[in-house]
Amino acid sequence: VDSKMAAGCCGVKKQKLSSCSSSSTSSNNSNENHCKDVTRANGFSGCPGGRNMVVNSEMCCFCFDVLYCHLYGYQPPRSPRFTNDPYPLFVTWKIGRDKRLRGCIGTFSAMNLHSGLREYTLTSALKDSRFPPMTREELPRLFCSVSLLTNFEDVGDYLDWEVGVHGIRIEFINEKGSKRTATYLPEVAKEQGWDHIQTIDSLLRKGGYKPPITNDFRKTIKLTRYHSEKMTLSYSEYLAHRQHHHYQNGIAHPLPPYNHYS
Fold it and tell me: 149, 227 in Cβ contact below 8 A?
């Protein structure tokens, strides 16, 4: 399986890409999106709340740096200071006071965070097939979320997961005999007010399944549940964070800095 195969939290999209929004339209291009064993390298057997979080605000700042530099034609930012351990990851962009989805793409294959966040910052901002590429004018209204996926568990019962706690990834055989996959990050079902069945059925539709959905068919689904560590930062919070680093480090070039890393 391609180590950079991209996925999203609601099904399969063109060019092996998909997005976070529950209202997105999925294409029917094939995509296997296997949860490789490497994705479990940073998994934990307990609840994520019982240990120190890996995700932090600096990761969101780095994503803003990468996007800012791309949109303004600066050199890409240097390598950041946070850990470069491999994780499956998603980068989500929302915009405006109502925080409408603006892009969400990630990968189930564990990637080193420095290169993974660079790649999926721009992929989610510029190549989410439901949206036009982001522009400079949108930057001040953006919110960036970084999600690191952990604790992957294959379960035998498609109902064996908790709304608001687990992300889920389903694999099923469609009416044409093709293997399909789709996923939602942990927050999606809760934000939409869905129960287990509604979430599963929505995922099946996003994965391109068109016939009526029966309980017998739901029982054929292979389901993997997982946890997610998530951090969100607004553009104004990003600027404040970078301003602090400017004064602290004596950096003279304009905000946002794109070479402040040591």
Answer: yes
What is the spatial distance between Cα 50 and Cα 85, in angstroms, rounded to a whole number? 20
- Residue 162 DSSP code: -
Residue of 198, 209, 213, 226 lying closest to 172 (CA atoms): 209
Cβ partners under 8 Å of residue 252, min gap 6: none
Helical (H) or strand (E) element with 203? helix 196-206
Q: Quote the CA–CA distance of 120 and 19 in Å, as a whole number.
A: 12
First-residue to last-residue Cα distance in the chain: 35
Residues 101 and 128 sit within 8 Å (Cβ to Cβ): no
Token pair, residue 114, equals 């420095």
Secondary structure (3-state) at 140: helix
pLDDT single digits (tens) 30-76: 232 322 222 333 333 334 445 689 999 999 999 999 999 999 999 99
Which residue's structure tokens are 């195969």?
A: 5
Residue 11 DSSP one-character state: B
Q: How far apart are CA 162 and CA 168, in angstroms?
A: 9
Q: What digits encode the pLDDT tens for the residues 139-175?
A: 999 999 999 999 999 999 999 999 999 999 999 999 9
